[in-house]
Design a protein that fits this description.
Chain lengths: 125, 111
């Protein structure tokens, strides 16, 4: 069964930090691109960033709104992706999803096929 | 940044009717490799989104054939033929052609 399982999150004060973890099962996690997408309460989806696969040196991309505050990295064994969030703002309050990029064979098809269950991060003033 | 604009933002349909959602991008979604990375997701209440359509018109595994996607360049459409009660939710388009990835605002489909 292919799935992503998330952990971390919770209530944090503005200016604080929190780290989310995403682990995969049922597939070769370190050979996949993993992104983070968030959804503020009652709002739409917002892309946060990407961690590419091991062959691409786990390089990353990030949205401009979080680039200087959030760090996306891989766990030591490459079997998890971390979203380290610092200097949190009220507007970072959201459900955070980790998602797998969909490849058909070796071809990237520009979307996400597997979503984690979501982790709530609430930033209080 | 590519802006994605969906219309309508809300749609109430009768079971068995066809629902149509439009998604327009602020610039062409044709990648330098010739592919167009436009996808559609369904989000039911309280659940993560679920992939329905990728590369404009390809149905993802397990998606009923009443869902179909079409379009090119900057204009895209998701159609749900013969809407069922189970199709209630919010539908999002997303472009995967450029960073940052961007989503439409979402279209709420009600029965």
């Amino acid at each position: 069964d292919v799935r992503l399982v998330q952990s971390g999150g919770g209530l944090v004060q503005a200016g604080g930090s929190v780290t989310l973890t995403c682990e995969g099962s049922g597939f070769r996690f370190n050979e996949n691109y993993i992104d983070w997408v968030r959804q503020a309460p009652g709002k739409g989806l917002e892309w946060v960033g990407q961690s590419r696969s091991k062959p691409h040196d786990y390089s990353t991309e990030a949205a401009a709104s979080v680039r200087d505050r959030f760090i996306i990295s891989r766990g030591d064994l490459g079997n998890s992706v971390l979203l380290q969030m610092k200097s949190l703002k009220i507007e970072d309050t959201a459900v955070y999803y980790c998602v797998r990029n969909y490849f058909e064979g070796a071809s990237y098809v520009g979307t996400f096929d597997i979503w984690g269950q979501g982790t709530v991060v609430t930033v209080s003033s | 940044e590519i802006m994605m604009t969906q219309t309508p933002l809300s749609s109430r349909v009768t079971v068995g009717q066809t629902a149509s959602i439009s998604c327009r991008s602020s610039q062409s979604l044709v990648h330098s490799n010739g592919n167009t990375y436009l996808s559609w997701f369904q989000q039911r209440p309280g659940q993560p989104p679920r992939l329905l359509i990728y590369e404009v018109s390809n149905r993802f595994s397990g998606v009923p054939d009443r869902f179909s996607g079409s379009g090119a360049g900057t204009d895209f459409t998701l159609k749900i033929n013969g809407v069922e009660a189970d199709d209630v939710g919010v539908y999002y388009c997303m472009q995967g052609t450029q960073f940052p990835r961007t989503f439409g605002q979402g279209t709420k489909v009600e029965i």
